[in-house]
From TrEMBL:
This is Uncharacterized protein.
Amino acid sequence: MVVLSNPGIEQLSSLRNCKPTTLFSGIPIIDPSKSDSKHLLVKACEDFGFFKVVNHGIPMESISRLESEALSFFSLPLSEKQKAGPPNPFGYGNKIIGPNGDVGWVEYLLFTINQESISQRSALNDYISGVKKMACEILEMMADGLRIQPRNVFSKLLMDEQSDSVFRLNHYPPCTGPGIHTLNSNNMIGFGEHTDPQIISVLRSNNTSGLQISLGDSKWISVPPDQNSFFINVGDSLQVMTNGRFKSVRHRVLANSMKSRVSMIYFGGPPLREKIAPLAPLMKGEEESLYKEFTWFEYKTSAYNSRLADNRLLLFQKIAAS
């Protein structure tokens, strides 16, 4: 059993327990090799802000290698793992998520992609190279589907040498051990509800369930796990650049009482100096911008100073987004 450090078990009573949901079979599936994929992709971003990518071309060997090294790290004694932390902002952390009081049943490693990796350098760099390439291809498909030029209008922000992208390894240990049964461990929050502030997030996890997305009106659906595919989140910045046409998906993770969950997430962000605003080619007629222009640095700073569940875009809205 993995033992996480403070805050202690008794403090997890502050985590919200959730009503169980059934696995949802309607997650949009995008196959980049299909001719209609760009149109399906746009619809998925409008309706869900979330979709699954199959036939992605990333070797399973690269995926399995990083997952194996991640599990090896998370299996180390706590004292060894803590040598890679605290996450200020990069490094190893557990239970405490950010500086503003959010907690979850999770331990993690957080890397900046422009930094030397903490321990899994070769496997990490190989994996990130593949998912970054895939993310850029998906963003170019989005531009094609939206019929805007140049088609690298989104992807160039990730390809920029100053791109502020990060990578996260999350480990959700099984909810077992003394005292945990009193906290309804089948529904314990692993990572609280939030949206991702960047442009796009590329998620891959093992075959343990737990990921949920919100359809609005406080309705949550559980995403069936698929260790052979990738899941894509629309981020806040992409919502702004499409003037609210694409929806930044609100999501969370529930811990599992029996099995551990390992997820690997690439967060594709723009350079800190980049100005984020709705793209002119997507503004129709007299359509007004829903958002004030801001730099990625301004938004990132604001997001870092907020709670996970906060509507981070609210401070940057001109008028209410529908």
